[in-house]
Amino acid sequence: MRSTRQADPAADWARQWEVVTSFYMAVHWVDQGLADVGTHPPSHRQRGSESAVRWPGERLARRAFQDLWRLAELVRYEAYVPTHEELQAVDAALRLVLERLE
Predict the structure, then answer these.
(1) Among 33, 57, 71, 94, which has the highest number of CB atoms less than 10 A from its own CB?
(2) Can you give the C-alpha Rg of the chain in angstroms?
(3) CA separation (Å) from 101 to 11, 34, 36, 89?
(4) How many helices (H) and strands (E) does the chain have?
Protein backbone atom coordinates (compact mmCIF):
# COMPACT_ATOMS: atom_id res chain seq x y z
CA MET A 1 0.00 0.00 0.00
CA ARG A 2 1.10 3.50 -0.59
CA SER A 3 0.07 6.61 1.22
CA THR A 4 -2.43 8.90 -0.44
CA ARG A 5 -1.44 12.15 1.21
CA GLN A 6 -3.67 15.09 0.49
CA ALA A 7 -2.76 18.75 0.47
CA ASP A 8 -4.64 19.15 3.78
CA PRO A 9 -2.81 17.52 6.73
CA ALA A 10 -5.89 17.91 8.97
CA ALA A 11 -7.95 15.89 6.48
CA ASP A 12 -5.26 13.18 6.44
CA TRP A 13 -5.25 13.09 10.23
CA ALA A 14 -9.06 12.79 10.35
CA ARG A 15 -8.98 9.88 7.87
CA GLN A 16 -6.33 8.12 9.93
CA TRP A 17 -8.23 8.52 13.18
CA GLU A 18 -11.44 7.28 11.58
CA VAL A 19 -9.66 3.97 11.02
CA VAL A 20 -8.17 3.81 14.52
CA THR A 21 -11.42 4.67 16.30
CA SER A 22 -13.34 2.16 14.17
CA PHE A 23 -10.86 -0.55 15.11
CA TYR A 24 -11.13 0.23 18.82
CA MET A 25 -14.93 0.27 18.61
CA ALA A 26 -14.63 -3.26 17.23
CA VAL A 27 -12.16 -4.21 19.99
CA HIS A 28 -14.55 -3.09 22.73
CA TRP A 29 -17.48 -4.88 21.06
CA VAL A 30 -15.55 -8.14 20.73
CA ASP A 31 -14.20 -7.82 24.28
CA GLN A 32 -17.74 -7.50 25.60
CA GLY A 33 -18.81 -10.65 23.76
CA LEU A 34 -15.80 -12.52 25.09
CA ALA A 35 -16.34 -11.19 28.62
CA ASP A 36 -19.88 -12.58 28.50
CA VAL A 37 -18.33 -16.07 28.47
CA GLY A 38 -15.58 -15.24 31.00
CA THR A 39 -12.73 -14.61 28.55
CA HIS A 40 -10.51 -11.53 28.80
CA PRO A 41 -7.70 -11.66 26.18
CA PRO A 42 -4.65 -9.54 27.00
CA SER A 43 -3.62 -8.90 23.37
CA HIS A 44 -5.08 -8.33 19.92
CA ARG A 45 -3.57 -11.61 18.73
CA GLN A 46 -5.14 -13.59 21.55
CA ARG A 47 -8.43 -11.73 21.01
CA GLY A 48 -8.42 -13.12 17.46
CA SER A 49 -7.80 -16.65 18.71
CA GLU A 50 -10.49 -16.43 21.36
CA SER A 51 -12.92 -15.02 18.80
CA ALA A 52 -12.49 -18.14 16.68
CA VAL A 53 -13.57 -20.24 19.67
CA ARG A 54 -16.45 -17.93 20.67
CA TRP A 55 -17.81 -17.42 17.13
CA PRO A 56 -16.67 -20.40 15.03
CA GLY A 57 -19.31 -19.82 12.34
CA GLU A 58 -18.52 -16.14 11.85
CA ARG A 59 -15.41 -16.36 9.73
CA LEU A 60 -16.23 -13.29 7.62
CA ALA A 61 -16.82 -11.11 10.68
CA ARG A 62 -13.60 -12.33 12.29
CA ARG A 63 -11.77 -11.59 9.04
CA ALA A 64 -13.30 -8.08 9.03
CA PHE A 65 -11.92 -7.58 12.55
CA GLN A 66 -8.45 -8.67 11.38
CA ASP A 67 -8.65 -6.31 8.40
CA LEU A 68 -9.50 -3.41 10.73
CA TRP A 69 -6.55 -4.36 12.93
CA ARG A 70 -4.10 -4.46 10.01
CA LEU A 71 -5.19 -1.12 8.58
CA ALA A 72 -5.18 0.52 12.03
CA GLU A 73 -1.58 -0.64 12.51
CA LEU A 74 -0.56 0.84 9.15
CA VAL A 75 -2.19 4.12 10.06
CA ARG A 76 -0.72 4.31 13.56
CA TYR A 77 2.78 3.01 12.98
CA GLU A 78 3.52 3.85 9.35
CA ALA A 79 1.55 7.10 8.99
CA TYR A 80 -0.48 5.58 6.17
CA VAL A 81 -3.38 7.71 4.95
CA PRO A 82 -6.32 5.56 3.86
CA THR A 83 -8.14 6.14 0.59
CA HIS A 84 -11.83 6.96 0.35
CA GLU A 85 -12.45 3.36 -0.75
CA GLU A 86 -10.57 2.02 2.26
CA LEU A 87 -12.69 4.18 4.57
CA GLN A 88 -15.81 2.71 2.98
CA ALA A 89 -14.37 -0.77 3.59
CA VAL A 90 -13.65 0.18 7.21
CA ASP A 91 -17.29 1.21 7.68
CA ALA A 92 -18.50 -2.07 6.16
CA ALA A 93 -16.07 -4.13 8.27
CA LEU A 94 -17.13 -2.40 11.47
CA ARG A 95 -20.80 -2.93 10.64
CA LEU A 96 -20.14 -6.63 10.03
CA VAL A 97 -18.33 -7.03 13.36
CA LEU A 98 -21.08 -5.21 15.27
CA GLU A 99 -23.85 -7.21 13.61
CA ARG A 100 -22.33 -10.68 13.71
CA LEU A 101 -20.09 -10.87 16.77
CA GLU A 102 -22.55 -10.44 19.62
Answers:
(1) 71
(2) 14
(3) 31, 10, 12, 18
(4) 4, 0
